[in-house]
TrEMBL record:
<dbReference type="GO" id="GO:0046872">
    <property type="term" value="F:metal ion binding"/>
</dbReference>
<keyword id="KW-0436">Ligase</keyword>
<feature type="binding site">
    <location>
        <position position="265"/>
    </location>
    <ligand>
        <name>Mg(2+) 2</name>
    </ligand>
</feature>
<comment type="similarity">
    <text>Belongs to the D-alanine--D-alanine ligase family.</text>
</comment>
<dbReference type="InterPro" id="IPR005905">
    <property type="entry name" value="D_ala_D_ala"/>
</dbReference>
<keyword id="KW-0961">Cell wall biogenesis/degradation</keyword>
<feature type="binding site">
    <location>
        <position position="263"/>
    </location>
    <ligand>
        <name>Mg(2+) 2</name>
    </ligand>
</feature>
<keyword id="KW-0479">Metal-binding</keyword>
<feature type="binding site">
    <location>
        <position position="263"/>
    </location>
    <ligand>
        <name>Mg(2+) 1</name>
    </ligand>
</feature>
<dbReference type="GO" id="GO:0008716">
    <property type="term" value="F:D-alanine-D-alanine ligase activity"/>
</dbReference>
<dbReference type="InterPro" id="IPR013815">
    <property type="entry name" value="ATP_grasp_subdomain_1"/>
</dbReference>
<dbReference type="GO" id="GO:0005524">
    <property type="term" value="F:ATP binding"/>
</dbReference>
<dbReference type="InterPro" id="IPR011761">
    <property type="entry name" value="ATP-grasp"/>
</dbReference>
<feature type="domain" description="ATP-grasp">
    <location>
        <begin position="90"/>
        <end position="296"/>
    </location>
</feature>
<dbReference type="InterPro" id="IPR011095">
    <property type="entry name" value="Dala_Dala_lig_C"/>
</dbReference>
<keyword id="KW-0067">ATP-binding</keyword>
<dbReference type="Pfam" id="PF07478">
    <property type="entry name" value="Dala_Dala_lig_C"/>
</dbReference>
Amino acid sequence: MSHERDVSLRSGRRVAEALRSAGLEVSLHDVDADLLPALAQGRPDLVWPLLHGATGEDGSVRDILELVGVRYVGTGPRESRVAWSKPIGKTVAARAGLATPDFVTLPQSLFRELGAGRVLESLLARFGLPLVVKPSRGGSALGVTLVRDAADLPRAMVDAFAYGDTALVEQAVEGRELAVSVIEDADGLHALPAVEIVTDGPYDYDARYNPGRTEYFTPARLSRTEADAVSAAALAAHRALGLRHLSRTDLILDNAGVPQFLEVNVAPGMTETSLFPQAAVAGGRDLPELYRSIVMAALA
């Protein structure tokens, strides 16, 4: 019952349909009191957790699957917890040599105790504008605000705290917004073509999941050098964070041509407007066969 429940259901249905068309026997199950009895009785060969948001990406459901001895698609629980935390993920990526916008994290309790006004003044003095304020955990751009005017910063903090008790505040980077998906199959690790995202405003929840507000260029409008650089950054993030089978890295290609790591997603969206399937199709992949190859890699 996360904020991203609807997107999770849509992703699950889309992948189930694709796998069935690829000749696999698939059943869907919600995360409820009947899940563990169903796993015990049905003993599936594999579970594909298509859950976006807290329990789907923070490692907890994957912990349970390991606890009951069921294999699954995707990153393990410990690595998922690292990637789920944006500040920790950014720190790991930076240690691996990736560029990432400078940032601070602010727990809501500390923000109040120190005095909101003084903290906001310090943020503006350190980073200037524009800033990006977001929950330190979470997806689908929920609670994320691009702040260009100092008067909008208090509201941005409130919006971020509505989705978690810690906010991440980072320098906004000017450039092209890109998403690069990575897959792991029998032939190894591959980066799919980058997707370039152009919106009529912020790339928020509405822009992501309701057609019309966002224009996608797949593959992105990049030179060969730029395309190689962003693919290398996504592969480096995938390896540095210990991810498995599939991931999606969000980044900004700044005006100097440097890929700036923002975050990585261990459970990319698979809806009709999601970036992972768009990238796969642009790369000449048949979705049912691609998803089947990921399943086979997880079973191997």
